[in-house]
Amino acid sequence: MDFNRISGLRTHPAWRLLQADNAPLIISFLYRAFIVTNQRSIPAEELATRLDDYLHHLNENGERRIAKKGRDYLNDWSSGEQGYLRKYYPAARVGDEPLFDLTPATEKVIEWIASFEQKQFVGTESRLLTIFRLLQEIADETETDPAMRIRQLEQEKQAIERKIAQLVDGHITPHDSTRVKEKFLQAEETARQLLSDFRQVEENFRALDRGVRERITTSNSGKGQMLDTIFLKQDAITESDQGRSFKAFWSWLMSPASQEQLQQTLQKVLQLPEINALNSTSKQER
What we know:
Blueprint: H1 3-8, H2 13-19, H3 23-36, E1 42-43, H4 44-60, H5 70-77, E2 85-88, E3 99-102, H6 104-114, H7 125-141, H8 146-168, H9 177-218, H10 223-239, H11 241-254, H12 256-270, H13 273-285
Antiparallel strand pairs: 1-3, 2-3
Helix pairs in contact: 2-6
């Protein structure tokens, strides 16, 4: 984060977005369209219609006089010079209309602007416990002394047995509403960050793919040597920390058992009165 590094970032799409004359329009609309609705890709016609409605709303309320159509704005925002949106066509679906998605840079700007707003409820206990749990898991997983590991597992076993005994005796500890809301808000924030990370991973993989294609186009090497280079590059990507993490994430996400478990858990949690109250408050604020 030295002077030269920061000066070079002035050409970054996120910096350009913050300096854009229409920054309030771009950020507020994309926040409504993608973040509030938790959508990834939106068809061009649908997104243009939403933008036209939003522009009409701004004009009606005297916010500004806007003459351009929504589709024209979308094309500008997805052009190479701007790069606020990613415009692409669905794979293997010739003739379909294009789709739009946020770029990682735009999402970072939206998250940053959203963080300026004062939160009505800031949970600290669940964050602290999460940090402690993660550190404990690292310590446990890297423990090489069998006796120490057995002692840790025995302690966990005893704690579980105590909880089972309490339930058998009919002692059910009532849940803490504050903790429930705090944990849900943390899960919600983590889910938004995961979606942002997923966009960044996708962009990284696309950049690697473009690099390989450019090498194929410009290389003077023989076909066999070029294939060896490509396969080595692919193996390096797969075996990298990012590649391994993404592979584990994708395997879990595509597992039918994991999907069913996640769906059942979500349904149960979203039915809790504390969560319903949170969702109602959130909708009113929007």
